[in-house]
Structure formats: structure tokens, C-alpha cells
Amino acid sequence: MFNYVIRRLLLMIPTFLGATLLVFIILQMAPGGPLEKTIQQIQMGSSQGGGEGGATSNGSSGAGTLLPKRALKELERFYGFDKPIWQRYLIWLGVWKREIKHRNLAFKIGDIEVKKNMGKRRYAYVRKNGAKLEVYDKEGNISKLWTARFDMDISDEEITNFDELKNNGELSDISKLEATIYETEYSGVLTGNLGKSYTYQQPVIEVMKPRFKVSILLGLSGWLIAYLVCIPLGIKKALSHGSTFDLISSAVVFMAYSIPGWAFGGVLLVLFGGGSFWDVFPLGGLHSPQEIWVNLSFFEKVLDQLHHVILPIIAWTIGSFATLTVLMKNSLLDNLSQDYIRTAFAKGLSEKRVIWVHAVRNSVIPIASGIGYIIATIIAGSYFIEMIFNINGFGKMGFQAILDRDYPITMGFLVIAVIIRLIANLLSDLALAAVDPRIRFK
User: Fold this and answer.
1) Considering the entire predicted model, what is its pTM?
2) CA pair distance 252, 260, nearest whole angstrom
3) Cα–Cα distance, 380 to 23 (Å, whole number)
4) Which pLDDT does position 157 carry in this prediction?
5) Is 80 exceeded by the pLDDT of residue 300?
6) Which residue in 355, 376, 383, 422 has the fewest CB atoms around it within 10 Å?
7) Is the residue at 53 inside a domain?
8) Alpha carbon of 43 to those of 30, 55, 152: distances in Å?
9) 286 with 178, same domain?
10) CATH code assigned at 220
11) pLDDT grade, residue 200 (50/70/90)?
12) Residues 181 and 244 in one domain
């Protein structure tokens, strides 16, 4: 089994790379990206007006852009559009060095050396050497940490040779040249860095942590309740096939299945939410307001949170009730008609032993095969249910990141979703092997 798990984990690598690369390219090439939105906001807020042009997501700008070349480059660097798309993906993945700790420098004509304070009593000495800049440490050695480059254009043409431009007199009307020095490091998904959110200005992991806990709380709770209710209910319906109980329970289950979870959640709030006729449950959130929550004891906090999550969990799990119940019932009915069941009865085994030891074990095989898919779905969260109950969960965060063009959060959401889905598929195989004696990993 260990070798099988290792092989499956290795096969997950190309799947992960393919999924993330495809979405990354779509996000980078799609119009209306964060760079375009920022430039449009600046243009709309500018008192000078401007033309129709703007910058595209790959960093090119139209004729009507109001931003200076320097400001546009700063925006491109902030949003990561200052490099080719393939290099951006490798940087995001963590296999290509990322530029960090940028410092801007101003070079006056005739200067030979610029000393830049880098903080914590660290200084970088930058010298012009023909067409390039060299960074030295305080001992006079070329720095292994810092790199420098010219960042300012002259007449929209890149600087190729500083000394040649100076000798030809092309710099006579230019008071200074702009340059940037920076450090580089391997920092990306493979090193645990999912980037920094454009919207929240925080690391993506820090933004995701509290919302991921919400999805785990609601999703896993609903999943456990669904299995604990639907498997016994399906067994009971199979053993009472055609009875009044079977018909009534089927009608109730399929009526619930026909209602979307978010719509059912809205009905629950109307009937049982605060201010309704039956004012039993709060209108939303995961706990009471903060000024009340901080003064509660641990036991009171547990009760308060249970009081808030009952309706969301019911809405979350209502759709899976019919599927699991009917699947369990039909699987058990199918197994009860098999020859091995008749053989067990013929050998004199009791009805209870035949049903619960032989038939039920084989009947849960179809349910076990889909356990990974269910786990992957519930952890991803439900945007609509989270909106109805005003819960800041994982699904709501991912959907809002797409609307806001917050690419780091969008890609971080994709990474978590893909990894969970791949691991969930592996769990399905292991669960299937645990309940099906015919499957052995060799």
C-alpha cells in the first residue's frame, strides 16, 4: 500500500502543475486585470482628464495613459506584470528567483558612486560600470545579496550604454537617471509563500486561515451528520421497501433534494431567524457580537457557536441527503438479492448477521468510493450559503477574489482546492480498499 500511495502522490505533480498553469495563464491574459483597474481609477480621479487609452494586463500602455513611465513601471512591478508570463509562473511556483526589498536610486550626471542606506546599519555602494550597475558591500566586494538595474527610459528607448550616451551629449538635458537595487530569493508556492493579497495587503495564507477554519467547521460537521443520518436511513428504507415509512421518507427526502441549499437556508431564516414568528436562531454569523463573545466562558462560547451554526449546517447538508440515502438503499437492495446472501441464509446464519455483517458491508462500497469527492466539495465552501448567513468562509473569499481581480488569493484558493481534491481522491481509494476485500494494493 505504501508504494501505491507514493506512486499516486507522484502522479499528482503533473496534474497540479497543469491545473495551476492553465488558470494562471487565463488570469494573466484576461482583460480587466488589477493593473488596468488601478490605472483606470487613477485616470478617473485625475483632475487633468485624459484620453481613452490605458495599460493592458501585460504592461503595455495606450497613448492616453496619464501615468508617467516611472509610475507605470512601479505598478507593473507591484502587480508582477514586469516580466514574461512564463517567468511570472515560475516565480509564483518558487523555482525562479523573486525580486524583493526594492530601493530606488537617483543618479546625477557625473556621479561615480552612490551610497544607499539599506536599514539596520547596512549600506550598499552602487557604481556605474558602462551599461550596467554594480553593487558592493562596505568591504568593497561585489554584493551577493543585492542586484541593480537602470529603471528609467530615455525617449522610450532602454539605456544600453551609459558612457556612450554621456559622451555623445544625449544626457545633457537629463538631470538624473533612475535605478533600482533589489535582493532576490526563491519564494513561491513550493516554499509556502502564496503571495500577498492586493485587496487586504496581507499574506494570502493569513487571509485564508480564519476562513478555511470556517469551511472545515461547517463542512465536516455537515458531512458527519449526513453520513450518520443517511446510512441508517437508507438501511431502514431498504429493509422496509414498499412500506408506508419508505414512501413517506422518500417523498420528504426528494422534496428536500429539489430545494437548493442556499434557498432552503433563506427559508430557514424567514421561519426561525431573529425577528421571525419563531425567533429561535440568529440571522447570521458564527457567534455573537465581539463585545458579548469576549465575555463568555469556554462552555458558553461552545453553546453560542452551536446556536449560530445549526441553520447553516442544515442548509449545507440538505442536498446530499437524498443522494446518500437513495444510494445506500438501492445498494443494499441489490446486495440482498445476490446469491451469496441466499447461500448465507441456507447455511443457517441469522438474519441480523447476514444483513449487518455481509450485506451492509458490501453496500457501503459505492458510498466509500465517493467520500473523497464529498470532502473536497465541502471544504471548498459554498458561496451562496455563506452569503445567506453572512459567514466569511472559504467559498465567499474565493468568489470575491475573482470579482476583485485579486490574483494572489485566487491562485491560493486554486492551490488549496486542487491539493484537497487530489488528496481526497487518494482517500477514496484507501476507503474503498478498506471496505472492499476484493481490492488489494500490490
Assistant:
1) 0.76
2) 14
3) 17
4) 43
5) yes
6) 383
7) no
8) 21, 11, 22
9) no
10) 1.10.3720.10
11) confident
12) no
Residue 422 lies in a domain: yes
Note whether 138 and 212 are same-domain residues: no
Which of these, 135, 114, 128, 125, lies nearest to 163 by C-alpha position? 128
Task: Look at residue 350 and tell me if it is in a domain.
Answer: yes
Three-class secondary structure assignment of the chain: CHHHHHHHHHHHHHHHHHHHHHHHHHHHHCCCCHHHHHHHHHHHHCCCCCCCCCECCCCCECCCCCCCHHHHHHHHHHHCCCCCHHHHHHHHHCCCCEEEEEEEEEEECCCCEEEEEEECCEEEEEEEECCEEEEECCCCCECCCEEEEECCCECCECCCCHHHHHHCCCCCCCCEEEEEEEEEECCCHHHCCCCECCCCCCEHHHHHHHHHHHHHHHHHHHHHHHHHHHHHHHHHHHHCCCCHHHHHHHHHHHHHHCCCHHHHHHHHHHHHCCCCCCCCCCCCCCCCCHHHHCCCCHHHHHHHHHHHHHHHHHHHHHHHHHHHHHHHHHHHHHHHCCHHHHHHHHCCCCHHHHHHHHHHHHHCHHHHHCHHHHHHHHHHCCHHHHHHCCCCCHHHHHHHHHHCCCHHHHHHHHHHHHHHHHHHHHHHHHHHHHHCCCCCCC
106 and 218 inside one domain: no
Give dist(CA 61, CA 72) in Å, integer.
8
Choosing from 143, 158, 185, the residue where a domain stops is 185
Q: 108 is in which domain, residue-wise?
A: 98-185
Arithmetic mean of pLDDT, 189-193 = 88
Same domain assignment for residues 166 and 290: no
Q: Which three cell numbers stand for residue 218?
A: 461547517
Q: Are 259 and 392 found together in one domain?
A: yes
Residue 311 lies in a domain: yes
286 and 328 share one domain:
yes
Mean pLDDT in residue range 199-207: 89
Q: Each residue of 72-124: pLDDT tens digit?
A: 777 787 777 888 889 899 999 989 888 887 777 665 544 445 555 555 545 56
Per-residue model confidence (pLDDT) at position 389: 87
53 pLDDT more than 60: no
54, 39 contact by CB (below 8 A) = yes
Query: What is the average pLDDT value for the chain, to the nearest integer?
Result: 77
Q: Are residues 279 and 385 in the same domain?
A: yes
Look at the chain and report how many structural domains it folds into.
2
